[in-house]
Model the fold of this input.
Amino acid sequence: MKSIAALQNLVTPWSDGLEPSDAELDAIEWEMPLILAEVELLDAEIAVLDRAPAELDQRRIRRARRKVLTVRRKLTNQAAAASMPGGAA
Done:
């Protein structure tokens, strides 16, 4: 019986560069309110996939959509204010 051995290197060799950088972690932290709002919207939409949405479900979805839009607007305004000279938007 012949033994089988890998003749090639690993497809993705382990590297120290696989961890996210501080800038990437800061970007994720900055976007976290939007991520959480989108997860809330997704939860509301998933809840009604297999049935007709009741009035309470429709309100939950509308509320979650408004929250996503509000957080997006807030983050967009923050980004615009940070990119303008002098910080004025």
User: Anything to note?
Assistant: The first helix runs from residue 22 to 47. The chain has two helices and no strands. The chain has a mean pLDDT of 87. Residues 77 and 89 are 8 Å apart (CA to CA).
